Amino acid sequence: MKTHRMDRLTCRQAQEKLFDYLDREIGERDRQRVEEHLAMCEACTRRFGFERKLLDQIREKAGRQGLPSDVKRRLAAMLRNI
């Protein structure tokens, strides 16, 4: 679905949606609008790429840490009580 020229995002609007887009917490229409903007804007594509890499590295490192054992025990106890 192509958006109309009047419906296109500016760089500022696209950047305001950056983190929701990267976290996949954005509606279908806005996702399409962001992707259309990225297809036309090299500067935003670079910025989104940088932020995506940074976010991926944070997720990777956070995943390696795991939860402390006391947090795991408390969480398991809470889940048993549900």
Question: Could you explain the architecture of this structure?
Answer:
The protein is an all-alpha fold and 82 residues long. The chain has one domain. It contains five helices and no strands. The longest helix is centred in the middle third of the chain and has 24 residues. It starts with 10 loop residues before the first helix and ends with a helix.
Total strands: 0
Low-confidence stretches: none
What is the radius of gyration computed over CA atoms, rounded to a whole number of angstroms?
19 Å
Structural class: mainly alpha
Largest sheet report = none
Residue fraction in strands: under 5%
Share of helix among residues? Answer: over 70%
Sum up the overall morphology in one term.
Answer: elongated
Mean pLDDT: 87
Helix count, per DSSP? 5
Integer tally of domains: 1
| SSE sequence, one letter per element | HHHHH
Termini distance? 44 Å
What are the defining features of this structure?
5 helices; single chain; 82 residues; elongated; mainly alpha
Write the layout of secondary structure elements.
Blueprint: H1 11-16, H2 18-22, H3 28-40, H4 42-65, H5 69-80
Helix pairs in contact: 3-4
